[in-house]
Amino acid sequence: MFRTIKLRKRKSECIVCGDAPTITKLIDYVRFCGSSATDKTPDLFLIPFQERLTCDTYKKIREERKPHLLLDVREKVQFDICSLPSSLNIPLKALPDEIEKVKTRLGNNTDQPVYVVCRRGNDSQPAVRILQEHGITTGEIKDLVGGLDRWADRIDPDFPKY
């Protein structure tokens, strides 16, 4: 039995395989990715769907250049591999202690939406709750359903998946 997979083109700025890689040795997969190597972690449903945002809707928000804050709650090493432009990276574990960074980025724009993204849409849901519990009272706080994996599947097939 054989399985064929399609690999994406090498990107010159990639920190693993690019022209100037900064990751040059093997790493602990589970620690790096935050999930087991089988990657069969089930999708979580921690918040109601009305507090979530589909990739298609977020694509329209980006296209219309509507002001918002995109908070990426993946670990820095994952963020360094790939991220959506203009996103603020604060890992989920650090978010309660670094909530001031979010408030600073929002400034006086108290009605500016905050959208939270992670790899698969599981860590972004508790991040929404953390923001709400720490007094982020923008017009809306939502997470991106399916995370960056769904973004790559539905919106941007050239966006790296790991």
Automatic annotation (TrEMBL):
Protein name (database record): Molybdenum cofactor synthesis protein 3
One Gene Ontology MF term: ATP binding
Localization terms from the record: Cytoplasm, Cytosol
Keywords: ATP-binding, Cytoplasm, Metal-binding, Multifunctional enzyme, Nucleotide-binding, Transferase, tRNA processing, Zinc
SUPFAM superfamilies linked to this entry: Rhodanese/Cell cycle control phosphatase
Primary localization class, coarse: cytoplasm
Domain Rhodanese stretches: 64-160
